[in-house]
Task: structure prediction
Amino acid sequence: MLNALHAQPQDKILQLIQMFKDDPRDTKIDLGVGVYKDATGLTPVMRAVKAAEKQLWESEKTKTYTGLAGEPAYAEAMQTLLLAGVVPADRLAAVATPGGTGAIRQALELIQLASPDATVWLSNPTWPNHPSIIKYLGMKMAEYRYFDAERRGVDFDGMMADLASAKPGDVVLLHACCHNPTGANLTLPQWAAVADMLEKTGAIPFVDIAYQGFGDGLEEDAAGMRLLASRLPEMLIAASCSKNFGIYRERTGILIAIAPNADMRAVVQGNLAFLNRQNFSFPPDHGARLVTMILTDPALRAEWQAELEDVRQNMLTLRESLAAELRRLSGSDRFGFLAQHRGMFSRLGATPEQVETLRRDHGIYMVGDSRMNIAGLNARTVPILARAIIDAGV
Ligand code: LMR
Result:
């Protein structure tokens, strides 16, 4: 049986981790996978997470199974963080999932159960794991224009023109903030126009939120998603705690489904728990428990928010200094978009050959579409990267 298997293509983002490790140059710079790093190159355990882990170690009496949907307290804390009460709780169904990817996978399977012929609309470009999972599940997908490569900004007219062809029951996947891979995001009036369009077409929003707090702030980064949630009868949200709580390997995510009414909520909740049982049974608990403790304890929460804000400010400073250095070296404003983008990523707009040159000649690793992880930089490496970008002819 096993000899019938074919080799799978390598994941383009995860492949970079190994290539970077194998590079012997000590001047190498890793701008690949989306992991936050401090100025020393470490991905730290956040202070509030450490403190919560200590408390948990002292107080935890059992590791017996939790509920199929995870702990209700986790769902409640995450619903408040994400939606801030804009939707009544009796319309919210939720399950804990293994990371944000687990939530995306469960959401897609829910869509398949409810509407097997639905087309899932993806931004062009999007996080490569989105189309990869959709294809693996054999679902239909379509692309909507999103990024204007010339301006390195959102092609909003193109996006709206494409979304006008969505059919009732189709699903539109949107990045709540810190768009991966481009770094270009919708403004609040643009979110309102997307809500109008979804109302008109009857397509259902499916929001992926993996970077809340990394862009303009915890509340600001959720504002567009909350606007959709307050207006539309149905919506799916896949959220990740990997980045904003720095608990990547704990696999902590949640899928929230907004039902049109309380009666439907019960059916949706049952379906979500059923899907968890089919795929992995009980969701991981450790990370979810830490997140619940942090979000519900005022002292831990204050500590977490302060550190998250430092992380956000650090990325903004790196963006501004890279844009300034490139302005100085190029004598132009053509890299000004780097300071406008938000989140970990920016798409630089380099050709695949230029990306290859940066890797080969300068030991600078970024994804082949020229997505850079800004958090992989520090004050020392910003001028090195800027010089290399200019030398590579970008
Ligand atoms: C990324 O896009 O680099 C991250 O979301 C990590 C991943 O799993 O791809």
Remarks:
- The two ends are 48 Å apart (CA to CA).
- The pocket of (2S)-2-hydroxybutanedioic acid is lined by residues 13, 33-34, 127, 180 (CB under 6 Å).
- The mean pLDDT is 97.
